[in-house]
Amino acid sequence: MSHTVLVELTCVTGTGPEYLETILPMLEDTRAFEGCESVEVYTQEDNPDVVFLWEKWAARERQEAYLAWRIETGTLAAMDRFMAEEPRFVQLSQRQ
Questions:
Q1: Which pTM was predicted?
Q2: Helix (H/G/I), strand (E/B), else coil: 21
Q3: Which of 5, 9, 71 has its CA nearest to residue 36?
Q4: Domain span at 12
Q5: Apex CA 58: angle with CA 37 and CA 80, to 5°?
Q6: Is the CB of residue 6 less than 8 Å from the CB of residue 54?
Q7: HSE (CB half, 13 Å, CA atoms) of 67?
Q8: What are the residues facing 83 on neighbouring strands?
Q9: N or C: which end of the chain has fewer CB within 10 A?
Q10: 3 burial level (CB within 10 Å; 0-12, 13-18, 19+)
């Protein structure tokens, strides 16, 4: 069963569009990471400085390995300049 993660990213006022320009090309690496099934990007309709990533993974451990890789490579630290607050990760389990 796959694992879903909702990531909420609140950018500094006015930087949401620039943040998107920065991360969209990086998502190629995300999609190629072992266990990634899909990543979709959304912005809040009434506030383009709030970005959401809807991620599907083969398992939670794969998403956690991916996040560790992004931390180790310094990618997350490089994105700090855009963040008004810490990213919020919501781990979701599908219920039938």
A1: 0.92
A2: helix
A3: 5
A4: 3-92
A5: 70
A6: yes
A7: 14
A8: 11
A9: C
A10: buried
One-letter amino acid of 2: S
| Residue 14 Rama label (left phi>0; alpha psi -120 to 50; beta) | left
Residue 63 is predicted with a pLDDT of 96
pLDDT tens-digit profile, the chain (96 residues)? 789 999 999 999 999 999 999 999 999 999 999 999 999 999 999 999 999 999 999 999 999 999 999 999 999 999 999 999 999 999 998 887
Residues in the chain: 96
Domain total in the chain = 1
Distance in angstroms (rounded) separating the CA atoms of residues 54 and 27: 12
CA-CA-CA-CA torsion sign (87, 85, 13, 18): negative
Tokens 């099934």 sit at which residue?
37
